[in-house]
Amino acid sequence: MAHEIRNMELYTGTLDNVIAFILTEMEDAAVGVEKAERRCTRQSTSALGKIEAIQANLLSRVAS
């Protein structure tokens, strides 16, 4: 009986470690997604600013 209890404790401990590992990996992945979102937002904002500058330049040329 003690052997069975020990096996169950090992099994439970292993499951706890697996769950902790998975949760840590998911948290790390979420941080990576947030960083990628911020990078994409910066790049999109930069690209939009360039497009607006080009558009303003073209409009000023047409108005001249």
Characteristics:
64 residues; mainly alpha; 1 helix
Protein architecture, described:
The protein has 64 residues and is an all-alpha fold. It contains one helix and no strands. The longest helix is centred in the middle third of the chain and has 62 residues, at 2-63. It starts with a helix and ends with a helix.
Largest sheet at a glance?
none
Measured on Cα atoms, how large is the radius of gyration? 28 Å
Mean pLDDT: 93
What is the chain-wise order of helices and strands? H
DSSP helix count?
1
Runs in which pLDDT lies below 50 for 5 or more consecutive residues are none
Share of β-strand residues? under 5%
Structural class: mainly alpha
Query: What count of structural domains?
Result: 1
**Helical percent range?**
over 70%
In short:
The protein has 64 residues and is an all-alpha fold.
Topology:
Elements (H helix, E strand, L loop, with lengths): L1 H62 L1
